[in-house]
Write a structure and sequence with these properties.
Blueprint lengths: L8 H14 L5 H15 L2 H12 L1 H9 L1 H6 L10 E6 L4 E6 L8 H4 L4 H4 L1 H9 L1 H7 L9 E6 L4 E6 L11 H5 L4 H5 L9
Parallel strand pairs: 1-4, 2-3
Bound molecules: fe (iii) ion (FE).
Fe (iii) ion binds next to loops.
Amino acid sequence: MHQHLPHDPAVKTRALEALLVEKGLITSTAIDEVVKHYEEDIGPMKGAQVVARAWTDAAFKARLLDDGRAAVAELEFIERHGAELVVVENTPEAHNIVVCTLCSCYPWSVLGLPPSWYKSYAYRSRAVREPRVVLSEFGLDLPESVEVRVWDSNSDIRYMVLPQRPAGTEGFSEEELAALVTRDSMIGVGVANPPD
Ligand code: FE
């Protein structure tokens, strides 16, 4: 499926849904419920909680960077992640950005549904070719001294960025920290918000 995408994935999706319903394998109601679940219940907040935990618990962070799928499975509010989950850490020296050049592979279990721009041809092609320009368009101007690493997702491996913890957040609770973590910072096109 990954290699043979139709020109319009929406058309293929509707065709697949119609076929599955016709064969009695699934109901449209069940599909709607799954979509709603990812849109409303999962969203990027789960990822934000993962990041906040990593910022406050060094042992968890080490496990997260070592095996993302196993580490997030420790958190009861996250469903078992199907694909391998690789978490890449931003540092003062290196900034990571995630893309799926072929389609729209995304770590759904922690970030919910991908934003529409993530699926656009422009982002998919330019994030690899000219990542610094793309980051600048997102409002993130990185000094030349910072290395930019681009991670190309696929159906087997999904990536999530562990953003840098903002300065001035010493003593913040996990909940307060999670509120600073944006979806974009976990894709790598942004950074976590500074405290007020
Ligand atoms: Fe993909």
